[in-house]
Amino acid sequence: MEEKEEMEIITAPIKKQDADSLAERVFHESIHILGGLKKLLEYRNLTWLPSLAEAAYVIILKNEMFKTSREIAKELGITEQTVKNILNADEKEVEKFLKGEIEKIDEHKAGGIAKLAYKKVKNKL
Amino acid sequence: MEVKKFFELGEIEEEAPKLFGIPTGTKLDEMFFKIEEENGKFVKKPLGGIPHLSVINITGVPDSGKSLLVEQFAITQAHNNYKVLFVTVESPANFLYTSIKTKVNYLNMNLSKVVKNIIVIDASVNNEFREDTRALMDTMAHAIKEKHISNVIIDSITGLYEHKEVMARQIVRIFFNFLKKWKQTGIFVSQKRSAQAHESAEAAGGLAVAHIVDGTIVVDKKLIETKWESNFYKLPIGSVLRTIRIDGSRLTGHDKRTWVFEITDAGTINILSPLEEFIKKN
Question: Does any domain span residue A2?
């Protein structure tokens, strides 16, 4: 196998508060995708919030801080498998599920929602 | 808990850094030395590199070989499996890559291994790195922590205060303290201004850099222009005599002579001999 000959280059400032604020924006956008906080309350789905917060951080740490699954798991105090489930979630399937087009999915729902939210946040930046 | 505000010197013995060299891949490694007792006598022993955890300043006129020297240091460290953080303020990262690749091939080293161990912050293009010291330090801290960096190069520190030289002392002090805090061996590259003596430790921002750092290395080049110079140095008119000198080091002893060096076709530094011997030999 050919060895990689790439040098890691950082081209923009990395600030801890950037990761935090981006994760918060993804979290808010995820709630928005679900129809807002009120709707979550009405449908008694507030228990989704911790999973959404977790998924938002996983997506940001992976895509903005370039961390490995292992590093993310360690930083957030979750299992590596959970990180992988979030990162591998098929957002299109989750979107169909949210629209009621399919009844049941095996994907990590919060992961899929956070991925959709991340795309929207990035488009707004 | 009350924070201790002063110490007896003996109390910080365990925190004192061990004295050993961090190889540069040049003869500079033999030019820093330490004194050790051997059979009741004190003997000079080469340190094997620039002092561990020191912050060294390299200054010189344009195109005198400063960047080539720090690139060689980076390559040597990366080849030895130590991680290097290279903050490039002058040359964009893709040009740095080409320069490193050429040297690595010339030195018959493993390119994959070397580039894997060099993390680059490209401050040449992104204005925010140069203008916002805090943003640059946050990014450096992130890289040091996440990538287990042991050596930091800033080429050049002058680029961080180019249009505000009045800030030189403050900026150099901040980065010096930053490297000490993160236990890094560091090299700053400093430009010289036209009015400054070529062979002195003075650099942009005056003597601020030299006063703050642990040691200064001065690289210089002299164009052989007159018949007298040609006869004296035994070099043809129009040729260039390159010299390097350790101006000072507060952590260890060092060779105080001016040495002659050449830049090979691949851009590596080859320190030849002390100037006095070079003249005698020629």
Answer: no
